[in-house]
Protein 1
Amino acid sequence: MHELPQILDRGIVVDTEHFRIERLHLKFSNGQIRYYERMAGGGSGAVMIVPVMGDEIILVREYCAGTNSYELGFPKGKSESGESWQQTADRELREETGYSAMKYTFLRSVNSAPSFFEASIDLVLAEDLEEKPLDTGDEPEPIEIVRWSLSNISALFSDPAFREARCLAALFAAASLRGWLRLPASIL
Amino acid sequence: MHELPQILDRGIVVDTEHFRIERLHLKFSNGQIRYYERMAGGGSGAVMIVPVMGDEIILVREYCAGTNSYELGFPKGKSESGESWQQTADRELREETGYSAMKYTFLRSVNSAPSFFEASIDLVLAEDLEEKPLDTGDEPEPIEIVRWSLSNISALFSDPAFREARCLAALFAAASLRGWLRLPASIL
């Protein structure tokens, strides 16, 4: 096991509407001193949902300001204070797709670029869906719903439009659990 | 196809050593107006490498300031100006593991949280390794090398210590291409 560096000092470099950047002053166990910038997490966690309805999974396509493009992925969102992961998953699923699930299964937690970002997200499988929309009132435009057949799931893995690392991890985790993967005969 | 929002205005909110945050003033095709904050990408791209040596893949465990923890993952890094993805992959692999590869294969590109971040990373498979260390001189401590048997790859997918979404996506892409995945009989 590695001994964590000692945090000699830490401070907020900047705090904007969505981003809080900290500076850490660290002393490693071998005596080396370093300064690092990192982005602090949101605090209450976040959830990404893989919704399954019959023999289809439900994807959303929406505008993403980071890449200035429309991206295909799974519904997701940050937890509000006091929410369980199930409550966050259900609220976000209802807001983004109009469905609620009778059954939520925790898959795993993942992080993104941990050298710089603190945040992690819980990947969740949602099954037994029923229509139960929840209006947020704050979307600039309706989110497009895209249905994808489970029998064609390997094509989704290689689709260039489905390119968020967390979505690929979520799909793989769900596919492993539920046996959706049909690998090409050549690699079995 | 969706029509991209019109960018009415954009400006830098803050620019630190590692983070550049922009504010976009957008007009959606339906007339809705929104402001978004996003983090601009590094500019020259980045590469994550899945190195394979014989019947093992090579992982690194290093301190990550974002999560303030030691994390298990793949070597990676940003491209320097003028580098091809092969050159970046080779330099980062040599710096972090001490190996160079005779063969680099582009797997795919992924992004992370595209609602907020512009950056993407190229996932690359590295094969036919030979010892050829390259010292950076700027690491606070040696990076730990971890070897993982390809015959046990499904355990790596579910290991909680292997938890970066981009690493999971890279491993899946490499495993699909090279046929390392042995799915449990129950899901075939």
Note: The first helix of chain A runs from residue 85 to 97.
Protein 2
Amino acid sequence: MSETKVSLRGKKRTHNCGELRASDINKAVTLNGWVDRRRDLGGVIFIDLRDRYGKTQVVFAPQHNESVYQVAKQLRGEDVISVSGKVEHRPEGTTNQNLPTGEVEVLADDLVILNEAETPPFPIDSDIDTSEDLRLRYRYLDLRREPMQRNLTTRHKMAQVVRRYLDGLDFLEIETPFLMKSTPEGARDYLVPSRIHRGKFYALPQSPQTYKQILMVSGFDRYFQIVKCFRDEDLRADRQPEFTQIDIEMSFIQEEDIYKMAEGLVKTLFKEVKGIDIKTPLPRMSYDEAVTRYGSDKPDLRFGLPIEDVTETLRGSEFKVFESAIQSGSLVCGVNLPGQAGVSRKQIDELTELAKSCGAAGLVYFKVVGDSLESPTAKHFSAEQLKQLHEKFSANNGDLILLVTQPRGRIYQTLGLFRLELGKRFGLIDENQNALLWVTEFPLLEWSEDEKRFAAMHHPFTSPREEDVVNLDNGLKEYAEKKRWLSENSVNKARARAYDLVWNGNEIAGGSIRIFHPELQQKMFSCLGISKEEAEKKFGFLMEAFKYGAPPHGGIAFGFDRLVMLFTGSKSIRDVIAFPKTSSAMSLMDDAPNEVSRDQLIELHLKVI
Amino acid sequence: MSETKVSLRGKKRTHNCGELRASDINKAVTLNGWVDRRRDLGGVIFIDLRDRYGKTQVVFAPQHNESVYQVAKQLRGEDVISVSGKVEHRPEGTTNQNLPTGEVEVLADDLVILNEAETPPFPIDSDIDTSEDLRLRYRYLDLRREPMQRNLTTRHKMAQVVRRYLDGLDFLEIETPFLMKSTPEGARDYLVPSRIHRGKFYALPQSPQTYKQILMVSGFDRYFQIVKCFRDEDLRADRQPEFTQIDIEMSFIQEEDIYKMAEGLVKTLFKEVKGIDIKTPLPRMSYDEAVTRYGSDKPDLRFGLPIEDVTETLRGSEFKVFESAIQSGSLVCGVNLPGQAGVSRKQIDELTELAKSCGAAGLVYFKVVGDSLESPTAKHFSAEQLKQLHEKFSANNGDLILLVTQPRGRIYQTLGLFRLELGKRFGLIDENQNALLWVTEFPLLEWSEDEKRFAAMHHPFTSPREEDVVNLDNGLKEYAEKKRWLSENSVNKARARAYDLVWNGNEIAGGSIRIFHPELQQKMFSCLGISKEEAEKKFGFLMEAFKYGAPPHGGIAFGFDRLVMLFTGSKSIRDVIAFPKTSSAMSLMDDAPNEVSRDQLIELHLKVI
């Protein structure tokens, strides 16, 4: 530290750094904040003083106050100061229209240096060219940057809007435990060793699922929580070991009630945070349609390019590639890229590469010229087939039809990815549009080839549709006969009372109507290959609760981190979390996780092996 | 399950069970809820249908609808039903003024049984005579009881009021991590083993202390969070392994700013939750005064009985017990119990026993009769001493002065407990009063006889008063000379910029102005016997953050569980927590903690020993 006199107390601020306007001119004010920028101009020192609320220009002039000017000469960026002076109009021609305080400056009469700062490892600017690791290491400095301040402020605002909305609808915010029972089903639990109970462990919640259902059994009727959840998974770019969920559950309701409540919430958020009016009710699309038309269970509907299945149209052609694929059960599907018939050979090659990177083996194209289709492969198809192809895609002159062939189990994913890439590459996505929709009628179960059994697509508490319970009954009969699960078992036909809310291709919420009868819950467990004993051990308390009068109930959960990321236009959820972990689940700022003392482990009856 | 047809869907409710009034008569309505009580009267079935919002009487009359009546005959308590019918006025003389819906009843036209209930292990009544263990085991049923519903509803309301208040003052709610670094200092951390980083652990936060300070360094200026904290301690009656804190931190402030903000919060809570106007600013009392006058750092000021020190008044008497105690450095202190001079010998014996149970060796009493003091011991004191004793206690005719002698280090605790017991026993406590006060000027450090060093009374980040920094400097010099810490070291004189908020003898909040200069923080660590290396290892990131421009800051935290307990008049914090743990940190409902699979432990590189 230099010899500057640093004080423990400065004068209390009268205003924040974003507050002063022309109407404050001649007022004596005190500001507290950080030295954002310092300029020395003709023997006068100018600084921008910064706090959370904004920036204000402060002037230190030797002719006005020599001693204060001398102190100011020592100021460096990020020093913390308390400065007092008179608000003045900035001289003609020097006002800054981009700054709310840009008409005024404070002519300093007094200056107290509250803390000095070393030179930061990176500049505290909106845009910085710094590795994320360095930003995370010095997170306290990174968080001073305006985009981070704005992101966390928006996050705060969104949380308050959500709570006010739900409070207004008689929802109760009820805290559920963080130290709960480990019932791994799906993701891995984070465990917490018990000191008092040797060899026993708590688990951190992957979600408050069982507790919120218990609260419905308790008659709380409408519950919500903005709550941390934990999953010990190998992290992908967009995942964190701890994440925040807006968790909502309601009793005596059906799907329509959840839709209405959630649409109101989204509408309110858009209005209050972005000033945008969202039209409700939102459109709905079945899972089947989403997958077969858009190749995704979270379709981005800001643009078209729907997938068409032309397998039957093209069946029986002389085009070997398609015909042998069709014969072996594959499909031929594609999209119609409007107005791109003029692509060059080189561009076609690029599109082919793109299709391959999405999983296709190759790409067949047809340029739409008037009423006819032109392509090196066109000669292998009958005139009638080409006519029907033209019709199927409702093609217009100048369009470009792109086809691939693959087995049913893979082609939709391929074309889903391809469609998104085409949308980006050809500028088809209107960034100002907000395409929200419900995806409904999810399958109840999905086959796990590894485990040779079915897993819950949503979770084991999701109700099948009433008319599909018979599929569970049939499936269990088939299982009893075959003594093992086969992927073609009848349970595969059961659809769930589950729904996802999708915004511009992102799943922002998901939920379901729950099972509320112990018998049906037991049936579901059986379909998942969970034995009565295992179900009893893991979920016995929930099954038992259901015996004492469980109401019909259901809910939905929003991924809050992702929602804030999308609302703030951030690139990563790490930019909307104050202290995120890296992809190896580390905190670079404080070095967590770290080693603990031998004593701590002995108390927990644990040994590292 | 009986043969009753249970349905997956009932009719959607048009009203809740607390809503119908005389103005709704003749409306066709549908209610959903639980069968609270059933009575069969003269061939007609009456049930009270219950939900979170209230109860409504439903009538099943065979002459009105025979088939519905037949279904209703099967109804049992806690069955979940959907019932439709017409709202009617209750017959003359049968209205219930105690029930908001007591003027009406619903004559049932339709009944769907949504779920049947087994007989609950205890009645769902407001008052039940059931062990707490059984209540916790069947928490979902316990939570149906009206007092529990009311408690959690009040808790919800308080959380919203707190957030709205702080949001209105520009505080930002910022989430801090749950998976953090283990830095045990004081209580034991709950640890979370890392799977990816063998042998390393996260810790669950005991409080977000370091993070909120980091947020101040980041310029967030005003932060709050209603947040779970964790301490792995041997539980006392009023403690939980996980508890909730209203955590608040501000920059560029002094004590007065915290007081004002916190008083506003408390005032708002009292007004909005209890409809009570609290007068602010609240009174303040130094720690020294609280201890010497009330024998507690959280004095209950709903009644008087201040402690008076009469050591000097009585020094030199012929009463051996006191004189030898005084000679050996003990104090003689006591309280004046108004109007109790008429106590019997038996009552004096009881009071003596009470004093002993509070830690005293014995009790000396003086009955105030007119201007004189009567007591078997009176003859051992001079007339002047008795006169001064009388004056010291401002005694009135009929009062009873009670004295004890003990060393200075123990007498205040003894008399603090004794005072509280007297207050209860003699009905001196006005239960309708709300005595709030600040206790200030806490000692910075307290001597640990076990460890032969000083520990932080609040926490190591609490700032000493500016004028007391010199005591740290002197103390460190003395330590350097003596090479070891002694209890009479100068640091013992340092007072902290710490404060507690006390309500009727309960500490409801505590906080401090923090150290914000790295040098002073290092000095504080030295006084705590924390080496530079240890400080660097544990709090290096905070010390480093302070080098880049930390603002003056401070904060306060409210114990939210206890606050809700006090606001709801509950006897235990377990009655205001949805799913609490027992005193051995177990959840009786779901049996957490539990054993986990071998695979889970192997993945975590752990072995139970």
Note: The CA atoms of residues 88 and 492 of chain B lie 75 Å apart.
Protein 3
Amino acid sequence: MIKFLDLHKINHRYEAEIRERIGAVLDSGWYLQGKQNERFSRAFADYCGVAHALGVANGLDALTLILKAYGFGEGEEIIVPANTYIASILAISQCGCMPVLVEPDLETYNIDPDLIEQRITDRTRAIMVVHLYGQAVRMERIWALADKYGLKVIEDAAQAHGAFYQGRRVGSLGDAAGFSFYPGKNLGALGDAGGITTADEALFEKIKAIANYGSDYKYHHIYKGVNSRLDEIQAGILEVKLQYLDEDNARRRQIAAFYREHIVNPQVLLPWTYAEDAHVWHVFVVRVPRRQAFQAYLEEHGIQTNIHYPTPAHRQLAYTEWAELSMPVTERIHEEVISLPISPVMSDDEAGRVVEIVNGWR
Amino acid sequence: MIKFLDLHKINHRYEAEIRERIGAVLDSGWYLQGKQNERFSRAFADYCGVAHALGVANGLDALTLILKAYGFGEGEEIIVPANTYIASILAISQCGCMPVLVEPDLETYNIDPDLIEQRITDRTRAIMVVHLYGQAVRMERIWALADKYGLKVIEDAAQAHGAFYQGRRVGSLGDAAGFSFYPGKNLGALGDAGGITTADEALFEKIKAIANYGSDYKYHHIYKGVNSRLDEIQAGILEVKLQYLDEDNARRRQIAAFYREHIVNPQVLLPWTYAEDAHVWHVFVVRVPRRQAFQAYLEEHGIQTNIHYPTPAHRQLAYTEWAELSMPVTERIHEEVISLPISPVMSDDEAGRVVEIVNGWR
Ligand SMILES: Cc1ncc(COP(=O)(O)O)c(/C=N/[C@@H]2[C@@H](O)[C@@H](OP(=O)(O)OP(=O)(O)OC[C@H]3O[C@@H](n4cc(C)c(=O)[nH]c4=O)C[C@@H]3O)O[C@H](C)[C@H]2O)c1O
Ligand SMILES: Cc1ncc(COP(=O)(O)O)c(/C=N/[C@@H]2[C@@H](O)[C@@H](OP(=O)(O)OP(=O)(O)OC[C@H]3O[C@@H](n4cc(C)c(=O)[nH]c4=O)C[C@@H]3O)O[C@H](C)[C@H]2O)c1O
């Protein structure tokens, strides 16, 4: 059986270092907002090439905190791709803003820059781009629009730790970025975790306070804040794993290249990238017409898959107000996509076996 | 130096068990929503004597989730004591509800039941009681009011794990309860953590979904949810520590009894309890007229203290809309309280030394 993602194996590679780091936290008796957070956020900011990083509780919180810090709310609109994990959209709803869904293009699955301008109104405050499946959004057009209309650019970088656009890492491409360190992510904690990066110091300080009960120092509350922090244990684990992220991403690229070279099945549409270093292959998503049968076939042949995602946000019960909305590109993607196993711990043999089985599908 | 709270020492007692439990999570490769959560929430529900418990990210989230699950929002009012950690109040604001502050009584520091009824309007939806400093609120009057006006009773039990009222534990006294497992709490994790208890199965299921991106099962989103979950690592640690909670609370009671018997200084007003098993002494709060000088004096004599809390919510910048509000009892408490060291790992000698120094204050 080839697992979709063998997290135990992934983390086992660093088990000694991870145990040591957890041990250090236990020995310190300090579990929150301490040295491990300082070290990890310094290292992560440097990695992304941006001035500030802050650990928070999870990826959804990261996005929500950014929007809250900007003060966006009732009556204001945020542009977001219709094709994303629902969390991008939930963050916007959470703040009382209206998510304005825009179709992706079928080549990158990322938001279609050509369709954004027509959705901008005088209530639009920001464009949230999602670097989906591991591929950085081509930002040129987005920046131009943001400039033209005075909008903030917020990156949802949950799926693309380490990906580049024009030589810059995601997390440094917008005004602020939210990351998820959910265990299954390219950089994953051993529990829920998230992060925010930004070059904007005032925004950074405001987010830090909002995420800490709205306080800038102990018992001094300047905002109606929340609690969203990164445990020292998880910060320590993430600092360990960050050292290996580029290596891990390189291995993902190898496997993706291997798949893209050797999967030759007219029924299976392969993913594409506009630049090799733009993509960190968080998931390897193909499109097939009869997805359910294909998935069952793979399962039968010992290959676990996942679907990112089966149902778009506008077809979820959580958003019945969008029941009439038609998003044909998004809907088609959600009907046809299926994610093949990919991970830094997959062997060449396993990848070869996936190719063989996929090529055998009729 | 006698620390205010020696968390390293507290947790070191179970270090072997905690390391083993963390090891088990590492070995399993499963870090969220797994067996450790199941086990801990079962054990915690049983401990509280209530049907359901759910681990969430922290105590503030726990309260917010309860209010969200009830659907309380804009234009609705929640009654809450003015004398509390600001998180109780932030949870209410977070949902768009109006917190209606009620003064505490000076005997228990808990909400004054006599002052609640006059604050009930046709927009009131719930009474949030806070079992402050470790002492369960006397619920009789609260229940009667809730009955009379059809209000929900929500417990903020962040400071009172294990305390009893009329033979029932906090967490089982209202319609739903929020707990914090912040490291410094009587039951504390090694990071942020929280929990919810309720006998109401429908509410429980709804909260579980809301806290999991609004989904009742994978990729099926029925609410505009958030991400608020308890890491498997923290659930495992909490299950270990829960076994010793009653013992720990018993030791806290001993120290409190010792303080109450031996501190005899007319300048130092001791705390009171209406029933021994009602109080778990999360903090040992005394009132002194010249607090700042008293705190400096203790510090000079090697005794760390803390203040719960220096500034009430209605005097914080986060709530400038309350700048004109006058809450004399609450304000007086905030001016005079100071918390002496108390913890399950304090020795008799240390407690004796605190008594001696406190009695020497003029
Ligand atoms: C664009 C975007 N924005 C915001 C967010 C929100 O970030 P968050 O709040 O941090 O979740 C996401 C999150 N995104 C992900 C989302 O993509 C989805 O990811 P998924 O691939 O379906 O995840 P999964 O199936 O639970 O896990 C992947 C594999 O890993 C295995 N596993 C998992 C766990 C937890 C384990 O302990 N052990 C395992 O072996 C099981 C699976 O085979 O669902 C998650 C809950 C979200 O965090 C996003 O993609
Ligand atoms: C009624 C009520 N409702 C909701 C809540 C919200 O719950 P939460 O979201 O889980 O915080 C609270 C939280 N309540 C507490 C609040 O009472 C206050 O508690 P505190 O006693 O001031 O806490 P502290 O000074 O940070 O820690 C206590 C001692 O422990 C030491 N320490 C601390 C840490 C974190 C450590 O790692 N190592 C240490 O040695 C330092 C201190 O000497 O501030 C916390 C941040 C809140 O979680 C509440 O009281």
Note: Chain A has twelve helices and 13 strands.
Protein 4
Amino acid sequence: MNMSSIKRFSARDTNVLPSHFYNIKADLPTLPKPPLHPETRQPLNPQDLEPVFSKGFIAHEGSMERFVPIPDAVQEIFALYRPTPLIYATGLKKALGTPAHIFYKYEGAGPMGSHKSNTALMQAYLAARENIETLVTETGAGQWGSALAHAGALFGVKVKVFMVRVSYRQKPGRRILMEMFGASVEESPSPKTQSGARFYDQNPDHPGSLGIAISEALELAVKSPATRYSLGSVLDAVLMHQTVIGQEADLQMAAQGAEPDVVIGCVGGGSNFGGIAFPFVRKRLKEGRSIRFIAVEPEACPSLTQGELRYDHGDTAGLTPLLYMHTLGMDFVPAPIHAGGLRYHGMAPLVSHLASLGIIEPRVYPQEHIFEAGHLFFKAEGILPAPESSHAVAAAIDEALKAKNEGREKVILFNLSGHGLLDLNAYARNGNGSRNA
Amino acid sequence: MNMSSIKRFSARDTNVLPSHFYNIKADLPTLPKPPLHPETRQPLNPQDLEPVFSKGFIAHEGSMERFVPIPDAVQEIFALYRPTPLIYATGLKKALGTPAHIFYKYEGAGPMGSHKSNTALMQAYLAARENIETLVTETGAGQWGSALAHAGALFGVKVKVFMVRVSYRQKPGRRILMEMFGASVEESPSPKTQSGARFYDQNPDHPGSLGIAISEALELAVKSPATRYSLGSVLDAVLMHQTVIGQEADLQMAAQGAEPDVVIGCVGGGSNFGGIAFPFVRKRLKEGRSIRFIAVEPEACPSLTQGELRYDHGDTAGLTPLLYMHTLGMDFVPAPIHAGGLRYHGMAPLVSHLASLGIIEPRVYPQEHIFEAGHLFFKAEGILPAPESSHAVAAAIDEALKAKNEGREKVILFNLSGHGLLDLNAYARNGNGSRNA
């Protein structure tokens, strides 16, 4: 065994810690169409959002500054786990016999095991600064909910989570984590909101969807004066918060004299993809680098590849503003796949826009394929990807094999957005443990 | 919230990566009594162990060198995850309102989430060098088994694991991890060995113990020519392999101008404790530093506090050499507590010896107490300890509260030997999630 070629980056090289979020809107050739008020269908005013979000969040959402400062208090907490490691995939390269250089950014090293903490900490900080008592949100696989529960506990903000039923039942671990932080967790659809009761009353075992859970959380936020809503993906501000990932990766790769030929992420709402990709999209747009971008989605929820680009609500009850995005329709309920974080009918307007500009290449994989890829990666690298992240792994493997066929030393960067230690049953059920769990 | 006092060490400051293991036997005022042959009861010859262990392992076990070199190939793999972070427990300090400075070494950042990889990688490397086809072992909670399964996959050595039944059933996650690496896992006691059948035939639901599982693994190793046995704790060599933990912690603390007043670890077989403590024991023995050492064990398996110091077998069937150690008797079967890694009737001879010299202070906690401590730590620090590690957490909290009563700025160092993400059901069942899982 020759391990002498192992290169791994300092996970704690604080020189690469960003002081600002990167706002891609400052660099786009054209802007996406603006969100519309759900009733008037006129472009939204920032004030329209005040019953829903913290003012600080609304300011981030509307900002056109290229670089938005990260508050000191948030930078200090980021420094507890950032920069996350950039890992050269020696084991995977060997397993595939590819000349490609594969790097992955390991966001699973963050608290609660995924990239979601990056925006959760920022949003909880903003809420605390405005004395907001409770943040209410939805969660699919529970990565977002547990990240917000942790962030709320740190900043003294209560957290209430509507968890999509199929994940609530498949992934009890993340529910327990949320409750251990003192968050309250409801199975969604629940009978406790009008938006939920509409489905719950027909079928108390309804698997739920992110769209329904968003409606429930929003409904509660709007009804309760000291409560605001918090969203873990889709919105411009959330994607901007995630750009710490791509900024670090850029510096970490540059320090090795490397630059990616292709950047890969999985997409549900679009935030981990936007987080790793946007700083590199800037290099393509502003510095003329020929970098490709691949966004990978599940066959069961193919919004970018099969959805229509049009105005649609972000939720099922039609409470959110109309977003101009790739959508499968607000009523679409995806099959109960294990990648619960990707079961969203729409797509971040910024990702949709970049796809429509031809900058992002969407790709779709069936569930069996991503579990195989995740298992191969695990055996080669010793890190178990979350089922969501395994979509990115699968595309990285395919790109690496293509490079092998072409005999090219392509440089591949992908976002390993979270670990799958709380998804082991999903791997076992998909034939990668030797028996069912 | 004031986070400005956060200090956290570079997890990737490669200046602190040890090149050698530290062998405490070179520095002890007196040596522990030697192991005896199980049949002749005469001091063991190294050759007696050759049917059982790799020759390289036997050489480590018998070495009297103070510093034993870590092979390059193993150093390279260690460098993928070591040095592990040394974390200043800002959140815990605040939660306790203590003037104490609490540092913890986070071994859960390693592959498979615990310290066990340190010796697993070394042992798999030694086996591969001698073309040993299969390593067979036992595991309690599964941390050791998954670490060896990973190490075996890396070095091309097959791994077979007897997993204590109570853990097999409580912690399916770690079993799935082992199987995903291609290891084969048997519930112990099993009907497949004489040592197991003795218990299995009476009761197929027998909860098992580490002592029984060791007998099963040993029996299989001795019967199969290309198979050797691998042990995850207890033996001198294993404790020596773990001293990378304490050596790093010493350098990481020294770089902050800090030195511990007290060093804490949990003890089952004794390896994570020995790993963090021994380099500091050297400072006490050789440099006259007044450092205390606290070894924490579960009430259900109190070998150091209630056991007798005498020769006893390391397993239940009497196949192992006689070790001079604190023991509850080779037939002792501990209650099925969740800290499966601590359910061992004996104690590392080196830890037993240091306890008999008054250098180590043993301490015992009941299960409810350690789950409370683990939950408090989780809320304060955002890292969920394995139930085993929560024993160390509980003692660190008690020492910090004592410092508060005394108004002393005591410096506490403890080993957070593993994360508890695969033990969430145990936390939920012990009342720290809001309902049962």
Note: DSSP finds 17 helices and 14 strands in chain A.
